[in-house]
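Title: Prediction job returns without error message
Component: structure pipeline
Severity: low
Priority: P3
Assignee: unassigned

Description:
Job completed but the reporter wants confirmation the result is attached to the right record. Sequence as submitted:
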Amino acid sequence: MQGSAVSDHIRRHLDRLSPNDRRIARHLLAHYAEAPFETAESLSAKAGVSKAAVVRFANRVGYAGYADLHDSLREEAVARLSAPAEHDAGRRVLEVFVARARADLARTRESIDQESFDEAVRILLAGEGKLGIFGHRKSATLAEYAYYLLNPLIANVWPIGEAAVADQLIDLAPGDRLIAFTFQRYARATADVVRLFAVAGAPSVLVTDSPLAPAAAQATHVLVCAPSATGGFESSAAGLVVLEALAAEIAVRTRGRSDQRLDAAEQLWKQYGTY
């Protein structure tokens, strides 16, 4: 099959995939560099499904069979290996990464429509309990930034630390809610935190790079910062911009209500030498 990347074909068919299909898709997207070397048998074993399920999956995402899907993966790999590195073609690394970030942002804008964005804001502003924030590994940086952006705007913002996570979640209640971040490589801890919020009846917003991320199945609402390409040193620019957009929208919607809180924050920041 000619056209866009296999990963794009998979993502376009997500809505019609069965649970087994989604397990296969999740494995392929999480191990995309190794995918061209997988046989139907090895893929079925690693995804925990039958060989027949792998063949059916290939049909459901638009290929004539697994052989057709495998050929497309192999052709992509050959093309990637054959293409000269962008910086070797006269482009500096900074220019390459800026271009990649722009492409990721454009793709993310296509992935997140206004209705989906507004629903995420609604969830974060709803409830009288705590607003938990969590991210692990690479995504911990986004979680920390989310705390600094949202704490001056919303009361009871709660940065969930990576140490002794289970102990911090003992008192979860339906009035609480969560914003979590998970980008490849995914951390199981994030899926566990999202699941515990779901068990407690507390809603969650997940910001991720794939609807097949392990935590996505348990989240109330998912915002996908879809990358423009797979492989290489991936940019976090899209996740950062989506977070800042959420904070900006929350600032607009809480204007008036949060003024006193912001004034208090300004006084404290000055007192502790933050300008």
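Comment from assignee: result matches the submitted record. The chain has two domains: 6-82, 102-271.
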